[in-house]
Amino acid sequence: MKTRSLALLFVLGLVVIAGGLLLPQWMSYLFTIAMGKGLVVLGLVLLMRAGLVSFGQGLYYCVGAYVAGMLTQFVGVTDILVIMLASVAVSVAIAAIIGLLLCRYREIFFAMFSMAFSMILYGLLVRNQFLGSTDGFNVANPSLLGWTPGAEASSDLVLIVAVCLVIVLGAVAWRYLKSLSGYAGEAVRENEIRLEYLGGSVFRVVYVKYIIAAALAAIGGTITALVSGHVDPEMAYWTTSGEFVFIALMGGTAHVAAPIVAAVLFEALRTYAFAVSPYTWQMILGFALLAIILFMPSGLWSLVERFQNKKARKTS
């Protein structure tokens, strides 16, 4: 069963890559952006399954993007794999320090403190003239193992890397959630005292999840920076982090594929809403989220679960 699932995942990845390359350039761009944001939301889902909601994932999303931009513009490093590793390393180092304080808090305190750190970064970037202040700066086209594609081919390169990362990291996240450490997160959400009584460390469980979420956010920010060719402080603003929470609520937390699917639908919905009503498109998104909360409180993935349950009842 596991072998068949992995084979199906591999075939699906090839189909997605082929479809992305055949799509018009603007659709391929939106799809790549959705893959990056989906990874950020995947990390957020790990925290939400432990009962924590972070309004500060924009911090690591922005750090990953700015590391990519600074490496390409100021250091001359354009290899996409090196950039990814550097972005993750910097974000994990920052998360390891901030997490020592942040992971001691719960509920609204965790959410607000996480947003506070993100807004601190936003304020520092806005006042930094060297990094372009509010305008940000451009990011050079990436390369791969010495191969430097053209302007159009570089976006295809980022798309392929993004889809591969989504598949690999999604599979790893699924295995993690099915492990003892993954289930410990649900124990934190339900009863921290009982987990401590059984010998588990609540702080360690939350701390590890926070660092994993930071790494995923950094990868998502790097993908966004490389495909868009630009970074700016808005990536650390609280509305960006709120957007990630929006997508997480939209997809639900029942499966690792939910945030990826929700991110794609979110980008499609926002593009359509902006085309139809450029001055009130936020209202359309608000009504969409309100409808999901009212009719599908567990997110869009609950539709898949209903279909699976219905199929199982017919089989039995």
UniProtKB/TrEMBL annotation:
The keyword Ribosomal protein does not apply. The chain crosses the membrane at residues 28-47, 59-75, 81-101, 108-125, 157-177, 197-224, 244-269, 281-304. Pfam families: BPD_transp_2. It comes from the Bacteria. GO terms for cellular component: plasma membrane. Keywords: Cell membrane, Membrane, Transmembrane, Transmembrane helix. GO terms for molecular function: branched-chain amino acid transmembrane transporter activity. It is found in: Cell inner membrane. Its main location: membrane. InterPro entries: ABC_transp_permease (IPR001851), LivM-like (IPR043428). It is a multi-pass membrane protein. PANTHER family: ABC TRANSPORTER ATP-BINDING PROTEIN (PTHR30482:SF17), HIGH-AFFINITY BRANCHED-CHAIN AMINO ACID TRANSPORT SYSTEM PERMEASE (PTHR30482). This is Branched-chain amino acid ABC transporter permease. It comes from Marinobacter maroccanus.
